[in-house]
């Protein structure tokens, strides 16, 4: 969300087959804009879930803005990008991410992505490897890995009930209490690390018109798949990072996934005392790790 972006970052827009896609990049001082086109590109892709947006990475990417051209999109259905009334499927996000990279980048890119979006990126790197140079993935999961669902917080029959789905979204994502509770109870290891700014950023994204459609597709499990069926086909050099206290997708699951392709998944780094979003919970630690691996 634009008002929550760090200094020197503004938004640009590209059109995709599902609508306008907003992305954040260096636009003003303190960054030297004239030089960014010649820099290598670093793409940051956010997680899914109520209120998700590129804000998730906004505490990390400024640290790389003098060495890389930063691109951090709001995916379709999230943040400030288009929110079409749509029955979202996996193929929609595979297409949208590919379109984004093709339209904004001239050469293969390094992607930093989290959770389900990181799993989508793996699938895309298998089918379109020419788009990618390296992958740095936080807790990548298809949420149905090894045929074991990560567990819904609500029964599917409730989520699919007309009108009730509106109520579920309103109660679960469109108010400050629910957003704070979601961040503190499910995404972070330490609730006191959730700031007022984080709550406002997630709430602002969740309250966008038609934001419920992408969120409910995620909640229903329409976007889930078994990542273990794909990992052995991956050939792009990859590093996994995992919050040691991540809920839904445990570190044990992460190690099991990484072991499917140890030749390509060059390292698995467990980040102590963090949940599923270590880059938002302890950005200074994640920045240091990413700098080390990028070298």
Strand content: 15-25%
Distance between the amino and carboxyl termini: 30 Å
Number of strands: 8
Average pLDDT, all residues? 91
The global form is globular
Oligomer: single chain
Largest sheet: 8 strands, mixed
Structure classification: alpha/beta
Q: Unreliable segments (pLDDT under 50, ≥5 consecutive)?
A: 154-159
- Rg, nearest Å: 18 Å
Sheet with most strands: strand arrangement: 1-2-4-3-5-6-7-8
Helix content, binned percent: 25-40%
Put simply, the count of helices is 11
SSE pattern: EEHEEHEHEHHHHHEHEHH
What order do the helices and strands come in, and which of them pair?
Blueprint: E1 9-16, E2 19-26, H1 33-36, E3 41-45, E4 69-73, H2 90-104, E5 109-114, H3 115-127, E6 132-138, H4 156-159, H5 164-173, H6 176-187, H7 196-206, H8 212-220, E7 238-243, H9 251-258, E8 265-271, H10 278-281, H11 283-294
Parallel strand pairs: 3-4, 3-5, 5-6, 6-7, 7-8
Antiparallel strand pairs: 1-2, 2-4
Helix pairs in contact: 2-3, 6-7
């Amino acid at each position: 969300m634009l008002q929550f972006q760090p200094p020197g970052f503004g938004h640009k827009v590209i059109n995709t087959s599902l609508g306008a896609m907003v992305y954040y990049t260096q636009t003003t001082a303190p960054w030297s804009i004239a030089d960014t086109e010649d820099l290598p590109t670093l793409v940051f892709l956010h997680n899914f879930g109520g209120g998700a947006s590129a804000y998730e990475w906004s505490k990390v990417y400024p640290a790389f803005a003098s060495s890389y051209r930063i691109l951090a999109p709001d995916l379709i259905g999230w943040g400030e990008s288009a929110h079409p009334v749509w029955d979202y499927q996996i193929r929609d996000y595979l297409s949208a991410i590919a379109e984004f990279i093709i339209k904004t980048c001239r050469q293969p890119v390094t992607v930093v992505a989290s959770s389900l979006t990181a799993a989508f990126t793996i699938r895309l790197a298998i089918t379109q490897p020419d788009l990618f140079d390296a992958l740095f993935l936080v807790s990548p999961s298809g949420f149905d890995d090894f045929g074991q669902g990560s567990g819904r917080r609500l029964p599917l029959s409730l989520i699919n009930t007309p009108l009730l789905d509106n109520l579920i979204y309103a109660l679960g994502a469109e108010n400050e209490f629910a957003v704070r509770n979601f961040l503190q109870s499910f995404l972070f290891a330490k609730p006191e690390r959730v700031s007022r700014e984080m709550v406002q950023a997630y709430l602002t994204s969740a309250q966008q018109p038609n934001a419920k459609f992408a969120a409910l597709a995620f909640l229903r499990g329409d976007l889930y798949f078994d990542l273990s069926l794909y990992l052995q086909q991956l050939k792009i050099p990859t590093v996994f990072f995992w919050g040691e206290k991540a809920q839904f997708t445990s570190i044990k699951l992460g190690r099991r996934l990484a072991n499917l392709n140890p030749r390509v998944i060059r390292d698995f780094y467990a980040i102590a005392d963090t949940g599923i979003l270590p880059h938002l919970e302890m950005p200074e630690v994640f920045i240091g790790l990413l700098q080390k691996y990028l070298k």
